[in-house]
Design a protein that fits this description.
The complex is a heterodimer of chains A (329) and B (177).
Chain A (H helix, E strand, L loop, with lengths): L1 H18 L10 E11 L5 E12 L2 E3 L1 E5 L5 E3 L6 E9 L5 E8 L10 E7 L13 E2 L8 E2 L4 E9 L9 E10 H4 L10 E2 L9 E3 L5 E10 L2 E12 L12 E23 L5 E3 L5 E2 L2 E2 L9 E4 L3 E23 L1
Parallel strand pairs in A: 3-14, 5-15
Antiparallel strand pairs in A: 1-2, 4-6, 6-11, 7-10, 7-12, 8-9, 8-11, 12-15, 13-14, 16-17, 17-22, 18-22, 19-20, 19-22, 21-22
Chain B lengths: L8 H29 L4 E14 L5 E7 L8 E10 L6 E8 L5 E2 L5 E2 L2 E6 L13 E3 L5 E3 L7 E6 L8 E9 L2
Antiparallel strand pairs in B: 1-2, 1-3, 3-11, 4-10, 5-11, 6-11, 7-10, 8-9
Classes of the chains: A mainly beta (329), B alpha+beta (177).
Chain lengths: 329, 177
């Protein structure tokens, strides 16, 4: 066991050392070397000589990665506008470099295509999209310059079509590519050298990522479908079910929310049928009696308007039943 | 619009200032040996190479040593130091010494030199010894046997006097991380 622990320690130290060079020696650094020699000449005196000095500039390596910041597809609803997806673009090369960005909202296998996609740079740097403060990306005009070993957040902001249905997923990909590669027409393979085009005029070498990266993210639609069904039962004064004067009709309004997500300010209202009279204090919601007066509970009855029950925010799936009684005049 | 990425600019500036400083230093260093070498019996030259794997006409892979004037991170730089007695008389006690360039990691076991004893320093050339006898104290107070990244200086001691007009070379490899 002691051996193993010792080995672990050594491994940790090695990784520690590597971590410091995660992206390599900074591009443009000069590696300088001069050798010396000492000797005793035939007259017996000690001498020291130096060699020529080699100065080796460090080339720039272009490498980039991109990942989605969203843990899963971003929940949205049909007809939503400017819904952000978040990405992180990291320069894993060793020099500052401008990168171009491309969003694609027509991805194969997508349940629906998000529309009107725009790219924003997280200028604020807080990871939260803010259309008034973050910078709209315009290709070729404000390509972000990312420093070595630094990341930027990028948002792809899209509208959700009204036709998108519950549980459908709409995919978006964000691609980033070194402007040097993008502007060369056909991107060069790893190992290709753009002579003199790196930081400070050193060579720029295409790294293992080919200075191109793509990540996918998506929207998932949570939409709520609602229905309201009205039914009635009659109890006549004689214990039967005949709708005769004096008989009591119980109305049941069944509100059903299916799908996923929430709706707000839901309210059920119903007028009292003509030639009938509301039975005071007969209003219930899900089996619980409600008062007729407008107060802290959800229900109220007003002459002329009938009954009203406020459900407020309803998270699907959910079912609510409202009942009230009227007496036939 | 570029102004929104101003935060990157200072980095660029620092880099060019550094580059200027280094080139100024280089000029100063180059000037010295040129004047000194004329009068001395031993001439020292440093050259840098790297191994490149190439596919020959027969489809076999061959490693070719190529001179380099620039390097990308990940390159193993081979330094070859050539010593030459330019006089007719012998010179004695010849020691060739090279500080591993700042930023490079010495490759353990790569130092070579026919007819020389090789030893190392981990303190900038103040003390020399066999690599497996040198210890390094880390910032956290722990000590460990010297590793490649700890080596600051390599020294080749010629085991015999250098005859008039004789020459030889020593070499080592270092990784540019």
């Amino acid at each position: 066991m002691k051996m193993n622990l010792l080995r672990l320690g050594v491994l940790a130290a090695m990784f520690g050392a590597n971590a410091a060079y995660a992206v390599g020696t900074a591009a443009g650094t000069n590696i300088v070397n001069t050798a010396q020699a000492t000797f005793v000449d035939p007259t017996g005196s000690s001498k020291t000589v130096s060699s020529n000095t080699l100065s080796t500039p460090v080339a720039e390596i272009l490498n980039i990665t991109i990942v989605s910041n969203d843990a899963s597809n971003v929940t949205t609803s049909p007809s939503s506008t400017a819904v952000p997806l978040s990405f992180k673009v990291t320069n894993t090369g060793n020099g500052s470099e401008p990168y171009a960005l491309f969003a694609n909202n027509t991805v194969a296998g997508s349940g629906f295509n998000p529309t009107n996609s725009k790219i924003y740079i997280d200028t604020v740097g807080n990871g939260v999209f803010d259309s008034t403060k973050d910078t709209l990306y315009v290709a070729g005009s404000n390509d972000p310059v990312i420093a070595a070993d630094h990341s930027i957040n990028v948002f792809v902001v899209s509208d959700i079509p009204s036709t998108a249905s519950n549980a459908q997923v709409g995919l978006v990909t964000l691609k980033t590519e070194a402007v040097m590669q993008e502007s060369s027409g056909s991107p060069q393979p790893a190992g290709y050298v753009y002579v003199g085009r790196g930081v400070g005029g050193v060579d720029a070498v295409i790294g293992s990522t080919t200075a191109v990266a793509t990540a996918q993210d998506g929207y998932v639609v949570a939409s709520v479908l609602t229905s309201l069904v009205k039914s009635s039962s009659v109890l006549d004064p004689f214990g039967g079910t005949e709708p005769v004067p004096g008989a009591v009709i119980t109305y049941t309004l069944t509100f059903n929310a299916t799908g996923a997500g929430s709706i707000t300010t839901a309210k059920i209202t119903d007028a009292i049928p003509s030639l009938t009279t509301y039975v005071p204090s007969s209003l219930t919601l899900d089996g619980t009696a409600l008062t007729d007066t407008p107060d802290s509970d959800a229900g109220q009855f007003t002459t002329g308007n009938g009954v009203a029950v406020t459900l407020g925010t309803v998270t699907a799936p959910a079912t609510h039943a409202v009942t009230f009684k009227v007496k036939i005049n | 619009m570029k102004a929104s990425f101003n935060s990157h600019r200072p980095l660029g500036l620092t880099a060019s200032v550094k580059a200027l400083a280094v080139s100024a230093l280089t000029v100063a260093l180059l000037a010295l040996p040129a004047a000194a070498m004329a009068a001395d019996q031993v001439e020292l030259k440093t050259a840098s190479f790297k191994d490149v794997t190439k596919t020959g006409p027969d489809g076999k892979k061959v490693v070719v040593r190529e001179p380099i004037s620039k390097a990308a991170p990940g390159t193993e730089i081979i330094y070859v130091i050539t010593y030459h007695n330019t006089s007719a008389g012998d010179v004695a006690d010849v020691k060739v010494q090279n500080g591993v360039p700042k930023g490079l990691i010495f490759k353990v076991g790569s130092a070579e030199g026919a007819g020389t004893n090789i030893d190392y320093s981990v303190d900038g050339g103040q003390h020399f010894g066999a690599l497996d006898t040198l210890k390094v104290t880390a910032p956290d107070g722990t000590t460990h046997l010297a590793r490649g990244e700890d080596v600051t200086t390599i020294r080749w001691t010629l085991s015999a006097p250098l005859k008039g007009a004789a020459e030889g070379s020593v070499s080592y490899r270092a990784l540019l991380p």
